[in-house]
Amino acid sequence: MTNMSLKASWVAVDWGTSNFRAFLMTPEGQTIDKLTASCGLLAVPNGQFSDTFQQLVSPWADSINSLSVLFAGMVGSQQGWRDVPYVSLPVSPDALIQNMADVTLPWGKKGWIVPGATGDNDFDLPDVMRGEEVQLMGLVSLTDNCVTHAILPGTHSKHVHVKSGELTHFQTYMTGELFSVLKQHSILGRQLPEQQHCDTSYLLGVDAGRKGALSSVLFSARTQRLFNHVAPENVESYLSGVLIGAELGTLNEDGPIYLVGDEKLCQRYLLAIEHLDLQGKIMSGDECFLAGMTTIYQQSRNRCHVA
Amino acid sequence: MTNMSLKASWVAVDWGTSNFRAFLMTPEGQTIDKLTASCGLLAVPNGQFSDTFQQLVSPWADSINSLSVLFAGMVGSQQGWRDVPYVSLPVSPDALIQNMADVTLPWGKKGWIVPGATGDNDFDLPDVMRGEEVQLMGLVSLTDNCVTHAILPGTHSKHVHVKSGELTHFQTYMTGELFSVLKQHSILGRQLPEQQHCDTSYLLGVDAGRKGALSSVLFSARTQRLFNHVAPENVESYLSGVLIGAELGTLNEDGPIYLVGDEKLCQRYLLAIEHLDLQGKIMSGDECFLAGMTTIYQQSRNRCHVA
Hints:
The structure is a homodimer.
Chain A lengths: L9 E6 L4 E6 L5 E7 L11 H8 L11 E5 L14 E2 L4 H6 L2 E4 L5 E4 L3 E4 L5 E4 L2 H11 L6 E4 L4 E7 L2 E8 L1 H11 L13 H11 L4 H4 L2 H7 L8 H14 L8 E5 L1 H13 L4 E5 H15 L1 H5 L2
Parallel strand pairs in A: 1-4, 4-7, 5-8, 10-13, 13-14
Antiparallel strand pairs in A: 1-2, 2-3, 6-7, 8-9, 10-11, 11-12
């Protein structure tokens, strides 16, 4: 990926709970170089974000102190470098830019953290995101503003509505975290042989999960195995189906649902979406992130250059 | 509890995944003595159920080899002493008796394991219980056959319909296990101070949980705290409310709903049930278990005495 013949002008940083990623960027949004580390917020000792950041970007030590630095993700949370208040819906790139907060970089200049978004969901419950709002701004830009509905699968899957390029509504589903916690710590994952993915078991789970009453339907990941409707090595496929089915059960969209994220996980969602006779379209989560950060960088150049 | 002036004629054993309990009983169903141990199935080494049972009941060694022994619970599962097939709905005491399976006790006589029950639930998914069927038979007997709907809260909460003294339908909700797993292993329980129960937070959770889409509503156990709608020390009360609300959300019953189980947990369910303008009535889980085992013992005396 390294392409040092291009001229870097800024750095995009995705700093989450478990991982750190930094991208050396041209003004036009091309990536010149990339750094990754499994050094998420939880691994930063005693709030030493500045020192840790300096170490993480040390391969770029020669040039970085002249560049703008934009951060997104949980780095702007209570557990992060600075607690940046959420921006309320509707959210545009401009709203994000207006509400960025600065931190002092190790070399004395300011870096800028993009805020997360908040709004009440379908159930009038408060909902939040940090990081996905940037991917959505990128999705809007990459699709020429024609996206209306997107799903960002993951630990906390986000279902999002977009109107005229603004994020207008979203709802979180704890699908990924429930899957991980239940297979590791509940009776549903106990005494399973090595798992193999099975589309049939997965779609059986999707159909069960759509029925509602998740805390009841989950138990079928045990009983379907007990009565040999699901093979022991396919129980995780079924469980994954139940959780994704519960999430997709209420979908009723015209037009394509954009799936933004990890390719393999998006493929799994696409299978369920097509099984439900809906239309889906996969977009790379990384590309959306970088497109979103580029939009924010380009629209905020004056502000980010304040040192 | 020991009352050795009464004459023992049989032993009721509740042997589950985590705990062992045995009751020395009179023919009429009075308890003479009780043994408890945290020696559930998972603690029995290499399938040595006979040896383990002998150790557990050694305080009764003088008399037990002349008594009938009835077992209920997970001791009749794949992981137990003997895998006793489930009985299909509808289930009466007679159906349980006809399908009991024997094991050879350490002193050579036969002991009898009461089978569990199975049936398709509201979602046409297979459902199972082991142990609760005995409590239900006891509930029927203690209420003079006038129970129509009961909830047995716990790790895997059971919602049950009864008609003319027979168990006709039931549905499992993984409420207790989800609560335990989520507070210990998910973001919802992370970095919480010492918890205090709070009815207001609990009922706020019940109202949220009733709304459906559990994998989404669960996330509000994080956001309600983030926006100070729920105090950090009351998050578990709220989470408990969400899970119980999700379970109770579809209830629509005339007549009282019997709550069978641990007093404290039943009180918590009762609070939610009354909040939903329904009627509840608490019955001791232990009393129901012993009444159910007594019904089975009395109706099966000839068979159980086969040695």
